[in-house]
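[09:14] KT: can someone run the structure on this one? pasting the chain below
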Amino acid sequence: MAEILVAGIPATDSPQGCDMNGVFKSLEDESFFVDYVTAHFEKAPAAAIQDFPCKHTIDKARVIFAHGEFSQNIRQYAVLLDSENPDHYKRAGAMLHALYKSDIVTDVEFEASQWGTLEQVETGEVLGLSYGDSQQMIRFPIFYESFHNQMLAFDLSYRLCWAYEPKPRDYDFGYLYNVCHYLKKNRDLTVDSLSMLFRSLMH
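[09:31] RB: done, structure tokens below
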């Protein structure tokens, strides 16, 4: 998992998975949410930029919109389920739902590597680079180009959930690939279904 996660250390304010008064609670504040989410979405994962430097364009209005969605999701749990303090699975689901609905990154631009542009490497225009090596180089960048918002949304939500788990479980690229396809294909997922995703992953 370390090879595909965005650079950074998950916040571990509640290692026993029982205290929601840490980062999850702070995210209910709009200013904190905007700063926290923006910092995460500004960074491309190391695996994506290993050979091709990458820059993001972020829409701040969409980050603010995501905060509104997150807050509404938490309020719905409080009202409909009489749950004033939803657990970390519900909060992770609420976060993923808000982020994947918002498409915060509006553009991803890859710069050329020492071998040329992503397109040149993909089409085999580069001399001195074997087909196998070229395919390995572009595998993750091409995936990231198509699924950057879904990946960053899941990764941040996973990290938050991870911080509240006494024995968190990792995921591999195959799992990430399937989740990103699922999120991109289905635009009407519920908060509950995404909460169950984290519950099943961690157990």
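[09:33] KT: thanks! Residues 131-162 form the longest helix (32 residues).
[09:34] RB: yep, looked fine to me
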